[in-house]
Amino acid sequence: MSRITLSRYLIEQTRSHNTPADLRFLIEVVARACKAISHAVSKGALDDVLGSMGTENVQGEVQKKLDVMSNEILLEANEWGGHLAGMASEEMDQAYQIPGRYPKGAYLLVFDPLDGSSNIDVNVSVGTIFSVLRCPERNGATGDLGEEAFLQPGTEQVAAGYAIYGPQTMLLLTLGNGVKGFTLDRELGSFVLTHDDIKVPETTQEFAVNMSNQRHWEAPVQRYVSELLAGESGPLEKNYNMRWIASMVADVHRILTRGGVFMYPRDGRDPAMPGKLRLMYEANPMSFIIEQAGGAATNGTQRILDIQPTSLHQRVPVFLGSKEEVERVTAYHQE
Ligand code: AHG
Ligand code: MN
Ligand code: MN
Q: Which positions are annotated as binding Mg(2+) 2 (predicted)?
């Protein structure tokens, strides 16, 4: 059988699930931008793309050169096509306005242009995470698009995905009917469907958490992780293994491939910070993908996709992956 490219998959989605043509175009443009980012990332020291910019983003994090480059690649690729009403990014304080010379479209695109950027300089997998929302009716308003347009719960996402730049570059995508995985064929320059109907196993013996923060966690997480560590002789009666890549894309990709539970809990380091990961462009798109693959995602007390966002860069605790384990750690928060 001939290979199914991303373009063909999207056209077939239009036939079978009425995926609108402008959404199809949007996904193709994002995929094209991810190819350009993949290319830039792979150049490393050859093109002087490693290291820091010497600037900070709105979160007070030092920006890497590739954070800024990836952000620009996504903005430039997406601003002219007429498919978007606005964009928002980890690397930009405010919503990005579509320049007045271009038509505006129905969708909002929110992204983490380069996830796991502490891993760039050490040649470990990084990625791009994106979420697509519909722009609410503006009732004839013509001024700048404010951040309130973006503040929709994750259940409103019409598409979400990530690209992972690892030994292979892959694009994982959901349009709300399952999760598909595409691998970049570098000779052809196209993403080819290689992973049909990805599912997260319900049970697992693998967990991912940054153990160096243990002393700052709340009681339910202390309890859960100590039970994982207790192994066969503890209450869970099995031995667990641990992985922590420090790129959410890579950790989530492993979970989609062979199961596992990923945690970035709230911790006591900075009482003003309810977790590290950002709701709009990390937790929501990843939770949509994980749920579409049969897994679960909560903030400990609530399904992540049900959270009503209050600001663009808001942070949330995250527990996601194999259902049984996410349900267990969520139940411990209720006890
Ligand atoms: P980003 O590079 O976009 O700021 O995201 C990094 C995130 C996430 O990818 C990862 O899971 C986590 O931060 C790693 O945090 P630690 O450095 O605390 O391990
Ligand atoms: Mn990130
Ligand atoms: Mn990032």
A: 112, 115, 282
Determine the atom of ligand 1 nearest the C-alpha atom of 210: 19
Q: Could you identify the atom of ligand 1 that is nearest to the CA of residue 249?
A: 9
| pLDDT for res 1 | 64
Is the CB of residue 112 below 6 angstroms from any atom belonging to ligand 1?
yes
Rounded to a whole number, what is the distance in angstroms from the first to the last CA of the chain?
53
Residue 286 Cα to ligand 2 middle (Å): 11
Q: What value does the mean pLDDT take over residues 131-155?
A: 92
Q: Which amino acid is at 122?
A: V
What would the pLDDT profile of 5-59 be if each residue is shown by its tens digit? 999 999 999 999 999 999 999 999 999 999 999 999 999 999 888 999 888 888 8
The predicted model scores a pTM of: 0.97
299 is an annotated ligand-binding site residue = no
> 247 CB under 6 A from ligand 1?
yes
CB 111 within 8 A of CB 27: no
Q: Please provide the average confidence, as pLDDT, over all residues in the chain.
A: 96
91 lines ligand 1 (CB under 6 A): no
> What's residue 59's pLDDT?
82
* Residue 6 assigned as binding residue: no
The model's confidence at residue 92, banded by pLDDT at 50, 70 and 90, is: very high
In 3D space, the residue among 250, 261, 243, 241 whose CA is nearest the CA of residue 201 turns out to be 261
Question: Which of these, 262, 257, 335, 242, lies nearest to 304 by C-alpha position?
Answer: 262
Decide whether any atom of ligand 1 lies within 6 Å of the 116 Cβ. Answer: yes
Cα–Cα dist 9/192, whole Å: 9
Q: Is the pLDDT of residue 272 over 90?
A: no
Domains of the chain: 6-195 (3.30.540.10), 206-334 (3.40.190.80)
Out of 116-125, 183-192, 267-276, least confident range: 267-276
Q: Take atom 7 of ligand 1 and give the residue whose Cα is closest.
A: 116
Ligand 3 is an ion; its neighbours by CB within 5 Å are 90, 112, 114-115
**Among residues of the chain, what percentage have pLDDT more than 70?**
100
What is the sign, positive or negative, of the torsion defined by CA atoms of 207, 210, 211, 214?
negative
